[in-house]
Amino acid sequence: MGRVKEFDRDHVLHQAMLVFWRKGYEATSIPDLLAAMKLSRSSLYETFTDKETLYVEAIEHYKRTRQSKRDLLTNAKSAREGIRAYFERHIAAAFDEALPGGCLVTNAATDMDSPDEQVRKLIQDRFESLERAFYELLERGQQTGEIDSSKDIRFLALLLLNLNHSINVVAKVNKDKARIVDMMEKVIEML
């Protein structure tokens, strides 16, 4: 009979997520993960099989724990309010010193030279899902007359997706939060 696991899976996944988020997949070593997760090598491999599987699970954990920001788009009373609320929370997180820089998904997309197919699919799904959430909110805005019907909301949704990911990258190298907030306001004015 095998030994009963004596750790909280969500907690150790959260610790692994933070290491991958801070260092990236390539630079994260198994000893880094073992130290952060406070697991033995055998427990790590018995539970997660290998580093790649753990990475995929860490990205899934990230998606689950960061969903509330997306809900700001889905539950918004108006397009502009929803987009502003989303980006205000997004910018606050991007500049939060208690969190690793940027966004785990953006980092994953930019850090891996040739991402594994499963990781690439996760990233692609995340990008498409966010673009779709922006599009649906903009579409509601057009239906209510808040967004001019002549605006190309497919283009605007893609622009907002790119703004989202560029904030993650810029926040890692330029700590001028006011400049990013100003950029967000200018984009909202375009709507």
Automatic annotation (TrEMBL):
Please give the InterPro entries that the UniProt record associates with this protein. Homeodomain-like_sf, HTH_TetR, Tet_transcr_reg_TetR-rel_C_sf, TetR_C
Is NADP one of the keywords? no
DNA-binding segment(s) = 29-48
The organism's superkingdom is given as Bacteria
Which keywords does this Swiss-Prot/TrEMBL entry list? Answer: DNA-binding, Transcription, Transcription regulation
Q: What positions does the domain HTH tetR-type occupy?
A: 6-66
Do you know which Gene3D superfamilies this protein is assigned to?
Homeodomain-like, Tetracycline Repressor, domain 2
Named from the GO MF annotations, one term is: DNA binding
Report what the protein is called.
Answer: TetR/AcrR family transcriptional regulator
